[in-house]
Every structure is written in C-alpha cells, then in structure tokens.
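INFO  loader      accepted 1 record
INFO  loader      residues=502
INFO  predictor   begin
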Amino acid sequence: MNQSRSQVFFIPAFVILIALSLLPVLAFAAFSYKVTVNKIGTGGGRVFSIPSGINCGTKCSSTFPSGMGFSLYASADAQSDFIGWQGCLPSSTANRCPINVDGNKQITAEFALKAPPVSLTVSITGTGQGKVTSSPAGINCAPTCTYAFLKGQKITLTPVPDANSNFTSWSGDCTGANCTVDMNTAKSVSANFDAKSLKGLTVTKNGTGTGRIVSTPAGIDCGASCSASFGEGNSVTLTATPDANVIFDGWSGCNTSTTTTCTVTMNAAKSVTATFTRITGAVSKLNDTGITACADATTNSRICPLSTFPGQDGDFGRDKTNNNDSDGHAGFSFTKISNTGAQLSANAASWSCVQDNVTGLMWEVKTNDNGLHDKDWTYSWYQPDNTKNGGNAGVQNKGSCGGTSQCDTDAYVTAVNTAGWCGHNDWRMPDVNELLNIASLDRSIPTMDTDYFPNTDPVWFWSSSPYASSSSDAWNVLFYDATDELNSKGVQNSVWLVRSGP
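INFO  predictor   done
INFO  writer      dumping tokens
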C-alpha cells in the first residue's frame, strides 16, 4: 500500500509584509475617482473645493474617495462675472457646485469679461439753478457732469432745484416727470430749471434797543442788509438776537411767530417789523402773573373773557397775547443756559441757568447733587456793605451748606462768582420784588415753572432787601404760595441768585 504525503509551502515573512503594505494603495485605487475642473469663457476667476483638494487657479484636478460629497465654489476676478456650471448636481446655485463622487467627473466653470462701462452725461439748462443726483451714486453736479456706469445698469436721476428755482422738465434720453436711464449705450440727459418770480421782503427794526435779524434761507442780515428778494411761494424764517442789555419785544407782519422767530410765506412782497427794548435798570419790564383763567361769582377757572365780569387779570398782558407755552408757561419766556453761558434749545436735557427774556434777568438753577448749588443748603443773611444792609450786617455762617462755602449769603455769592457760573461773575442776591416777579401765580407748591426751574422747593428764599423798620430783619419770599414776609437775619433760608443782563 502506498501512503500519500501532504506537501506544505512556506511564504517568507517579508513577502507578507509587502503585500499588507500595498492593501491601502490597492483599495484607494479601486474606490477613488478623479474630479477635474475646466474653466472656459473670456473672463477669469478661481474655482476651489471644500474640503480642500482643488484650487483652480493652479490645481484644477484632484482624487476623492468614492461616495464622498463635496462642493466647488467659483470666485470671479474684478473684471469678470461668473456665468455658470456644467456637470454639477441639480441643486447647484449661482456660485456653488455640489458633487457626489460616484465616478470620474468633468466640471465646467464659465467666466466672462464684464461689459465695458458706458457714460451718462447730464447738463443743466434754463433760467434757474439746481443740480442733479443719481441712484446708484455717480452723478452729483451742476452745470454739466459725466459718470461711467456699468453697462446694463438702470440709473434714476433726481432734480434738486435751489430755493429760487423750479424744476420744469427732462430732455434728451429722458422725458416726462421721472427719469430712469437704461445704460445699454452712452446716454445724455438735460434737466431744465426755471427761475421763480422774486418777491421782496423788508425788515424794519423798531424800539429803544438794538439787535440783529437774519433769514433762512440766507438773504437778510439786518445789521446792514435789511431787505432781500426770495422766490415766490418760498417760506422765509427770520430770527431775532438782541444785543447786550436789550430784550426782543416781538414781531408784526409775520404769518406765524414764536418769541424770537418769524415765518413769512412769500406769495407777495412782505414787510416785517421787529421791536427791541433796551434794559434801563436792573429790571426794565415785569413778568405777567401767569394767570390765564377768569372767575365769576361762584366758579373759578372759567375761560376768559367773561362779559358779566370783565377786566380780569386773564384778559390782559402777555399771559393773553403770548400764551403759547413754547418757552415758558403762559406769558413767561425763558431760555436755558449752559454752565459756560451758551444758549440752549428749549428741549435741552441739562442746563445750569435760565435767562428771563422778559425782564432780562438771568437766574441760577438749583441742583440736587450736594454740590455748590444744591437745593437743600441753607444760609444766614449777611451783607457787610453798610450802604446795603440797613444798618445791620446780619449773621455770618449760621446756615447748613455741606462745606461747599461759608454758609451765609455773602459767602455764597462770592463762591458762585469765583466759579464763574454760566460764564459770569456778577451774580448777586435778588431783591424782594425780583423774587416775587419770577413767581407764577396760577400754581402753588411751588409757585414756579418747574419745567425751567427744577429742584425749586416750596420754601423760604432770602432776598437782598433789609427790612426798613427793623435792622435785624430782612425780607424773604415763600414759594409755597408766593408770599413775602420779614425774618430775622440769623434764620436759615435758601438762596437763589440772579444777575442783570444777558
């Protein structure tokens, strides 16, 4: 019997190692595909992939694993536009090409040179003046200008006549009321402006004082030039500024007016009078009382006038003639002043002093900040000048003022003047009549226009007026109800300073 014999073959170890090292290469070769980008067209740009691999530019093909999804993106250069793709998945967008790697891919990206720009020329014609602007921007000119826009753009032109002109018509490559130009070729447009008929405005200054009147739009600066011509139908605003120690007293001839402005519609020749009054003393005029209502035998707060009870306070004065509340309650007229002395608008949120435009006095505004002007500080009455103290200087430093100054009236005046408050160093104590004259008698607790004088408590305020019958007393005013009364000079009262003139 023959016995069979098995044969065993041995593979050397180094052969196995070589085979194993080739497996990834063989697998990649079997399961990867090549994606190639072809750029066509007259323009230029770059195509790149996310994730990286293609940057065409310089590298326009790369191999990606089978089944992988990725995207190509196109970026045109400055002088070119990207036109579109070929070979992408249907979900491609303007500059994105999605790809699913299920075989070798040929992707086409087309770029085209932009069309050369074309010129739009605009000219101004007619007897008037104005300019033309464009959207998108480029044209902004008078009398002639040219701008190069991209071919195919739509350009909207807008006429801007000056104050004394009217726009009348377009001509050239625009007609009708509106002008939109299709820039498929070079275009030329004319805008016609005709001059308005001019009407004269004359300003006359009246009264004992002096000041300046200026107009918007420009033309009158009176001063020297007190008449000018403006386009028919134009609205002209005059603004009055009184000189030092002068108050502006009002207008005549306006269509509408405020305390210092006058508006005139120029539908005919117009004349306006502006009255200025010089301040001849500490106070040249008195404020009105602030009372705007009337009363009958049984009822207060009736609308004035009442034929059965004529001649009441509410029937007369600035409370009736200037009651618009634009710069103070009823007939009061105030201007807010900054801590450097600059005039501020009526809606300013922060101010330090108030100019009384009727009396010409400037008042400090109390604060609530524990500073020099705090509303809670009190002072004894002290005046070392024997010509002003009624024969008794009063009492020094008996108030309570938080260490901001020595706590008497003379020391407080000195401290405020040293600070140059609101740009001035001539602050003083008001006399009793000046204090009473700032009160608004139609209100109480306090009797004060708190829109201009916040932080004014309804308490006693010292005046500078000594009491003639008793040298140890002086007058003070209670702004709870605007009553005046004498008090010992050693009593602690509030102080509210004033100065004369603008």
